[in-house]
Design a protein that fits this description.
single chain, alpha+beta, 2 domains, six-stranded mixed beta barrel, two-stranded antiparallel ribbon, 53% helix, 18% strand, elongated
Length: 418
């Protein structure tokens, strides 16, 4: 016997088989409850991490990591500014853009859209639009060609295909003979559909249209883009890297990163993850309550043993250690099994999900409803560590009350009728 006496006795009680059926049943229910709660937490949070990462990837497929703009004014010297940005830490590329709210129509269909003027040669440095092209090529947006590339859903709403001409209408100011602004008169121009893209996100596919930057400038009547889009090697460090890059330029440009543009999305995901974690942690809490109930029954069953241990010199603190050891063994074994099971499921969701769908004949995420037809999973070691520690702490706390009750056992009272 190499371990201290309280630990030795606690392990013997845990591994003994003379417990009643009900006590043994509650013990196994507690262990399985902790394991299932931990496994469910790891699996669900890993899937939510994967969905968050997938959403971030799709959002940033056409949206740069950061943008520089001049508070609504045009940036006429954008080429020299991009040259100044070269060599910034983590910067992969920079490209100009000019966004305009517009109305697209091909009778009888009409739809609102954001018409974005881009430089086809530089756009590939800040977005993955070339990979998202389903029809046509990005290089078809030649200066002066009046060609347009539409998102798949936007093209579907307008019922247009390659070669069709759509009318683009944007607001413009009417100027009187004296040079004063005289109301708002829309500007109209026909553009030929040269391509269709699909990134799998309604925010882009249903509202975005692309034209050449020079065509956009001529249409808007401005000299220069409205901003410069930046892309970095580390998307999570983009806010800091963007401000570092902007410091290379003359004052006057505002910096805005992707976390500000999509703050509502990711705040909602964080809230969902927090609430889901709290709800699933209740499974572990119920299992910990079962551990406490098991130990209460064991204490009542072992009153004679406790009295004998006390008479041979075991202190009340030692008695507490005996029953805390027993409860912690149940909880910690359950937590270890839960971590192993959760990791096994989370790391193999792409294998397990098709088997479940094929066995029961249904799709968890039907491809005709969701852009994401599978469940992505991304295991974060920090989540696993926090879940495991929370389970260990809950099971430890659950052992305190029964152990203290055992320590209050009076040897004379317990042995009176023995």
């Amino acid at each position: 016997m190499f371990q201290p006496l309280p630990v030795f006795v606690g392990l013997r009680y845990s591994l003994a088989r003379e417990h009643g059926f009900f006590v043994s049943f509650i013990t196994w229910v507690s262990l399985v409850g902790v394991a299932l709660g931990v496994a469910a937490l790891i699996t669900v949070l890993s899937v939510m991490n994967g969905l968050e990462s997938e959403l971030r990837t799709r959002l940033l497929s056409l949206t740069a990591h950061a943008t520089l703009n001049a508070a609504g004014a045009s940036i006429g010297d954008w080429r020299s500014r991009i040259q100044q940005l070269q060599g910034s830490p983590g910067l992969l590329g920079a490209a100009p853009f000019l966004d305009t709210d517009a109305m697209l129509s091909l009778p009888p269909s009409m739809s609102g859209a954001i018409v974005r003027g881009i430089d086809p040669e530089l756009e590939g440095r800040v977005s993955s639009i070339a990979e998202a092209m389903r029809e046509g090529k990005l290089s078809d947006l030649e200066p002066g060609s009046n060609r347009i590339i539409l998102g798949r859903m936007l093209a579907y709403q307008l019922q247009v295909g390659l070669g069709d001409a759509v009318t683009v209408m944007i607001p413009g100011n009417a100027v009187s003979a004296g040079g004063a602004t005289d109301g708002i008169v829309p500007r109209l121009r026909d553009f030929q559909v040269a391509g269709v893209f699909e990134v799998g996100l309604q925010e882009h596919d249903s509202v975005l249209a692309l034209i050449n930057l020079q065509d956009a400038e001529a249409f808007r009547g401005v000299d220069g883009p409205s901003g410069i889009r930046l892309r970095f090697s580390d998307v999570l460090q983009a806010p800091q890297l963007a401000r570092s890059a902007a410091a290379r330029l003359a004052p006057g440009l505002q910096v805005r990163d992707w976390t500000q543009d999509n703050e509502a999305y990711f705040r909602a995901i964080r809230i969902e993850k927090t609430m889901m974690g709290l709800m699933l942690m209740l499974i572990v809490a119920v299992a910990a309550f079962n551990i406490a109930a098991t130990l209460v029954m064991v204490v009542n069953d072992k009153r004679t043993d406790i009295a004998i241990l006390r008479t041979i010199g075991l202190s009340p603190r030692g008695v507490v250690a005996v029953f805390m050891t027993q409860g912690m063994l149940i909880g910690w074994v359950g937590a270890a099994v839960g971590v192993a099971l959760g990791l096994a499921v989370a790391l193999n969701v792409d294998v397990i999900l098709p088997v479940i769908e094929q066995t029961f004949g249904f799709h968890i995420m039907p491809p005709d409803v969701y852009y994401i037809s599978g469940l992505p999973s991304e295991v974060h070691s920090g989540d696993v560590l926090r879940i495991g520690m929370a389970a260990l702490i809950l099971t430890l706390v659950a052992t305190v009350y029964p152990a203290l009750q055992a320590a209050r056992t009076l040897p004379a009272e317990a042995l009176r009728y023995e």
